[in-house]
Write a structure and sequence with these properties.
- The structure is a single chain.
- 26% of the residues lie in helices and 23% in strands.
- It has 230 residues and is of the alpha/beta class.
- It has a nine-stranded mixed sheet.
- The radius of gyration is 17 Å and the shape is globular.
- The relative contact order is 0.22.
- The structure holds NADP nicotinamide-adenine-dinucleotide phosphate.
- The site of NADP nicotinamide-adenine-dinucleotide phosphate (NAP) has 28 residues, from strand 1, strand 2, helix 2, strand 3 and helix 7.
- NADP nicotinamide-adenine-dinucleotide phosphate (NAP) is lined by residues 11-12, 19-20, 29, 50-54, 57-58, 87-90, 92, 112, 135-136, 156-161, 164, 189.
Length: 230
């Protein structure tokens, strides 16, 4: 049985720990140089995962943007962009979302068992719907992705998904970018929800790298022995 994928959590947050705001317009928690860094990380992965709320709220394309990186992947026999992955219980996802309509890579929708039939009828033409059990647990998704040959998984949020990867102890690495401003509104989504995290005051995570990128800072935490600083 293959190993579960090396799993890298990536997100940008405000100084007060928010992933975004409640305003309709999306706020930029990163800058151009950091977006390019994230693009390079995407290009190094086999799959990128976001929660269904992020698909609805941000309508992300989740593609490798740099033509050079796309060509480098193609030269290695890979699709220009990684497989896209999402998870849902309610299946309130539109087949016309950019997640489904952009890029040639496979799209996987992990769905709670009771809604699989509905999900297949709505999203079957644009994605592979996978029965992920009830309740859906991230370790099942991780194992299934490993079975599909995914060796390196990038999880790009949002907070509910990050929380589960962390509390289920499935994360090998956290790449946290801190933007130089406050959101200041507790209705906004936070980096993580409540939970029992393996890293706490008695078991501190290992800070492996700190890098200033313009006006933001990248913090890389090693969360498992599989972490390597490349
Ligand atoms: N700053 C950043 O780097 C960054 C990155 C990504 C997202 N964001 C922001 O984060 C916010 C969204 O975060 P969020 O925490 O609200 O949501 P999220 O983690 O993106 O998605 C949560 C949704 O995923 C599905 N889901 C998650 N765990 C599940 C499980 N175990 N079983 C079944 N379904 C499951 C559910 O979808 P259904 O509701 O469809 O059942 C749930 O509502 C957005 O505002 C977005 O802009 C920021």
């Amino acid at each position: 049985m293959p190993d579960r994928p090396y799993t890298l959590l990536s997100c940008g947050m405000s100084l007060d720990g928010y992933l975004g705001s409640v305003a309709p317009r999306r706020i930029e928690l990163s800058n151009a140089a950091d977006f390019d860094r994230v693009d390079a990380v995407r290009a190094s992965c086999d799959a990128i995962m976001v929660g269904a709320a992020t698909v609805r709220r941000d309508n992300p394309r989740l593609l490798v943007r740099s033509p050079v990186r796309r060509e480098e992947r193609a030269a290695r026999g890979l699709a220009p962009s990684p497989i896209k992955v999402t998870v849902t219980e309610r299946v309130e996802l539109e087949a016309c979302a950019d997640f489904f309509t952009t890029g040639d890579a496979e799209k996987l929708v992990y769905c709670a068992s009771p809604r699989v039939v509905d999900a297949r009828s709505r999203l079957g033409p644009v994605a592979t719907v996978v029965d992920a059990g009830e309740p859906v647990q991230m370790h099942r998704i991780s194992d299934d992705l490993g079975d599909r040959g995914v060796q390196r998984l990038m999880v790009e949020g949002g907070g509910r998904v990050h929380t589960q990867f962390l509390t289920e102890n499935l994360a090998d690495e956290l790449q946290l970018v801190v933007a130089p401003f406050f959101v200041g509104d507790s209705r906004a989504p936070r980096f993580v929800r409540d939970g029992r995290f393996p890293w706490n005051p008695d078991r501190r995570a290992t800070l492996a790298q700190v890098r200033q990128i313009g006006d933001v800072v990248l913090l890389r935490y090693a969360l498992s022995p599989r972490f390597s600083l490349d």
